[in-house]
Specification:
Blueprint lengths: L3 H24 L4 H11 L5 H4 L1 H7 L5 H22 L10 H29 L6 H13 L3 H11 L5 H30 L5 H38 L6 H21 L3 H10 L12 H28 L8 H28 L4 H11 L3 H13 L5 H16 L1 H8 L15
C-alpha cells in the first residue's frame, strides 16, 4: 500500500534539492539540467548516504521506491517523446560533409573503443551469466551517445546555434541520437533474446529484429502520412492546439511505447519513435504540431518528472562500490576511452573535413556532452541486467564529468572572437 504522505515528502525533497542545485550550477556557468543530475546523485548513497546513512534509509526505504520508480519510468517515456518531437529531421539533409563525416566518426570510434575495452571489464564488472556480446555492444553504445537536448541548450546559451560550429554539431548530434537508439534497441533485443547461443534464442532475436523493423517502417511511412493528414484536417477546420490534442499525442506515445516493449526492444524506443513521426509542417504561420506539443509538455516533464528520475539514478549510484585501486583504474579507463573516442574522434573528423583545429575541437567538446541521454541508456542497461551496479556507477560518473567539462572547454577554445569559419552561415 502506498504511503501518500511519505511519497509527497519524497517529492518535495527531490524537487527542492533539484531546483536549488540546478540554480547553483547555472551561477557557475553550467546548464541547470547538470545541476539537477548532480542533485539526484547527492540524494543517494554517494553523498547523503555517506554523510547521514540513516537519513537515506528513512527518506527512501526500499519498500517505498515503487511509486517513485513508476513516476520515473513515466517521466523518461514522456521525455523521450519530447526529444523525438524536438528532433528536426531536416538537420539530416543537405548538410556539409563535415556534419556527416563527424557524426559517423563520433559513433563508430567510441563503439569500437568501448567494445575493445569490454573483454577486460567483462570478467569483473558484468553480472553473472551475461555473455560478452551483449555486454560489449552495450558498452559501445553507451560510449557513443550525445545528449542532444543539453547540446542544443548549450549552443543556444553560447549564441552558437546559427554558426558553422553549431550547425555541424547539432546535425551530427541528431544523427547520433537516432543511431544510438537503434543500436540500443538491438542490444536490448540481444540481451533479452539470446542469453545463450542456442538456436531458439537466436530465432527469437531474429523475430524481434524483423518485427521491430517492420513497426519502425510502418510508423515512419503510413503512420507519418496518417498523422500529417489528420494535422491538415484539424488545421482546415480551425481546431487549435488544445488539452485534448496534447492528451491524444501522449496516448499515441504510450501506445507506441507499449508496442516496442511487447516486441522485445524497449518502451523508450517506441516513445522516441512516436515523437519523430509527428507532423513538422506549419499551418497558417502557426508552429508545427510537434513543436506546440513539445512546448506544452517540456516544462512539466523537466520540472517534475526528470528530477525524480535523477533521484532514482542517484539511489542506484554508490561511489562506495569502487573500493579498490583496480576499480578506480577501470573507472579512469572508461573516462579516457569515452573522451578520446567521442571528443577526439569528432575533432579529428571535423579537422579532416576542412575545419580549423579550434573549431574542430569545439565540435568535439560539444559531441562529448552525454548528460541525461547517457543516464537513460545506463538505467536501461541496469534494468535489463547487462551491467553491474559498480559499472553503472562508473558510467554515471563518466556521464556527469564529460557533460560538466563541455562549457569550460568551449570557453577556453572560444575565448577570443569567433573565427571566420565559425561565423559562416549554415550550409544547405
Amino acid at each position: 500500500m502506498i504511503d501518500l504522505g511519505h511519497l509527497l515528502l519524497q517529492l518535495v525533497v527531490i524537487l527542492v534539492t533539484a531546483r536549488l542545485v540546478g540554480r547553483a550550477f547555472r551561477i557557475i556557468g553550467q546548464p541547470q539540467v547538470i545541476g539537477e543530475m548532480a542533485a539526484g546523485l547527492a540524494l543517494g548513497p554517494s553523498l547523503l548516504g555517506f554523510v547521514r546513512p540513516e537519513a537515506v534509509a528513512w527518506l527512501f526505504p526500499p519498500d517505498s521506491l515503487a511509486p517513485l520508480t513508476a513516476l520515473s519510468q513515466l517521466g523518461v517515456l514522456l521525455f523521450m517523446f519530447v526529444v523525438g518531437l524536438r528532433l528536426d529531421l531536416q538537420l539530416l539533409r543537405g548538410r556539409a560533409r563535415a556534419a556527416v563525416f563527424t557524426s559517423n566518426a563520433s559513433i563508430a570510434l567510441p563503439i569500437a573503443m568501448g567494445a575493445a575495452l569490454a573483454p577486460w571489464l567483462h570478467s569483473s564488472l558484468a553480472p553473472d551469466g551475461v555473455p560478452l556480446l551483449p555486454f560489449a555492444l552495450f558498452l559501445g553504445a553507451a560510449m557513443s551517445v550525445t545528449a542532444f537536448p543539453v547540446l542544443a541548450r548549450i549552443l543556444t546559451e553560447r549564441g552558437l546555434l546559427g554558426t558553422r560550429i553549431g550547425s555541424v554539431a547539432i546535425a551530427a548530434a541528431a544523427v547520433d541520437d537516432v543511431t544510438a537508439w537503434c543500436i540500443l534497441a538491438a542490444v536490448v533485443a540481444v540481451a533479452r533474446s539470446a542469453p545463450e547461443a542456442t538456436s531458439i534464442a537466436w530465432r527469437e532475436f531474429l523475430v524481434t529484429i524483423v518485427s521491430s523493423g517492420t513497426y519502425v517502417v510502418l510508423a515512419a511511412t503510413a503512420g507519418r502520412r496518417l498523422l500529417a493528414r489528420l494535422d491538415r484536417e484539424l488545421a482546415r477546420r480551425g481546431i487549435l492546439m488544445s488539452a485534448q490534442l496534447v492528451s491524444g499525442a501522449i496516448i499515441l506515445a504510450l501506445a507506441s511505447a507499449w508496442v516496442t516493449e511487447r516486441l522485445g526492444i524497449h518502451a523508450l524506443f517506441g516513445a522516441f519513435l512516436a515523437g519523430t513521426v509527428m507532423p513538422r509542417t506549419s499551418m497558417n504561420g502557426a508552429p508545427s504540431a510537434a513543436r506546440q506539443i513539445a512546448d506544452r509538455m517540456e516544462d512539466v516533464v523537466g520540472a517534475v518528472f526528470l528530477p525524480v528520475f535523477f533521484a532514482l539514478t542517484g539511489l542506484r549510484t554508490s561511489v562506495g562500490l569502487l573500493d579498490g585501486p583496480g576499480l578506480w583504474a577501470a573507472c579512469a579507463a572508461i573516462f579516457a576511452i569515452a573522451v578520446s573516442g567521442k571528443l577526439g574522434g569528432s575533432a579529428v573528423a571535423a579537422r579532416l573535413a576542412g575545419m580549423s583545429w579550434r573549431d574542430a575541437l569545439s565540435i568535439g567538446a560539444l559531441m562529448n556532452t552525454r548528460g541525461l541521454m547517457e543516464l537513460v541508456i545506463l538505467n536501461v542497461g541496469l534494468e535489463i541486467g547487462v551491467i553491474s551496479p559498480a559499472l553503472f556507477t562508473m558510467m554515471v560518473l563518466m556521464a556527469l564529468a564529460t557533460t560538466v567539462m563541455t562549457s569550460p572547454l568551449l570557453l577556453l577554445l572560444l575565448r577570443d572572437e569567433p573565427s571566420p569559419a565559425a561565423l559562416q552561415p549554415n550550409e544547405s
